[in-house]
């Protein structure tokens, strides 16, 4: 009885959160932190924590598909993880290899059109892991309904540095004009760009930092960030729904801020020319959410008396 009541409350809270959510981010990236601490606090080895974490990963993949998230990136193995003890690294490599192959063979992966691919310096991984990556990518490469990116031997600074070096080599070889180096050119030279920019980063385990994860795709998109205390094996659907709610709140706040800035711009030019002011509003229409220019038009109407034709 004592355990049943908290579960009923938990399920009720989960339903409440789900009703509050109006939509979901297109692309969620997760830093799966706390596997080792989870195991240590239970007197288990690191391998046990990683196994429990792998089960959470499977659940999160299902939640994403249920909520309409279209892309999920998991920080499975960072470049810093190469510094871990050899025995732990070996277990991690075994687990990654096993999960990549089993995921690629799952019926629901093929039914739901899940495309699996690796991001990072895959060449640094053991051959058995590289083979598993190739197997998963080949088995699911034709799908496009949901994308699962697994960051392996990944480091954000290394990714940006590699893109910069490749760009410089192309310029030095005369294959690229320096004047043509823009954001799109750098993006093209990253490890393997996710289809979408990151909308939400989730980090478990209590640390409030993004750990060199997807700096171009997340920071460049001003992604929302959700930090939570539970270790990755303990991460629940309620935690995930709270993360989605954080994303929605941030988006609403950002839309409001953009409208306020645009309205201020309209007020600033309203005293010059009605034609010019309407041109400004026209340009802003593509940058604001649907209906976002309604209040700008009202602002213009209020300022018509001070403008000249």
From TrEMBL:
- Kindly list the positions annotated as binding substrate: 34-37, 50, 78-80, 82, 84, 203, 209-211
What residue stretch is flagged as signal peptide?
none
Keyword entries, A-Z: Magnesium, Metal-binding, Transferase
Pfam families (UniProt xref)? Prenyltransf
Gene3D superfamilies, sorted: Decaprenyl diphosphate synthase-like (3.40.1180.10)
From the record, what ranges are coiled-coil?
none
User: What's the Enzyme Commission number for this chain?
Assistant: 2.5.1.89
Q: What PROSITE patterns does the record point to?
A: UPP_SYNTHASE (PS01066)
- Does Transferase appear among the keywords? yes
NCBIfam families noted in UniProt: uppS
| Role | Catalyzes the sequential condensation of isopentenyl diphosphate (IPP) with geranylgeranyl diphosphate (GGPP) to yield (2Z,6Z,10Z,14Z,18Z,22Z,26Z,30E,34E,38E)-undecaprenyl diphosphate (tritrans,heptacis-UPP). It is probably the precursor of glycosyl carrier lipids.
Q: What is this protein called?
A: Tritrans,polycis-undecaprenyl-diphosphate synthase (geranylgeranyl-diphosphate specific)
Species the sequence originates in: Haloplanus salinus
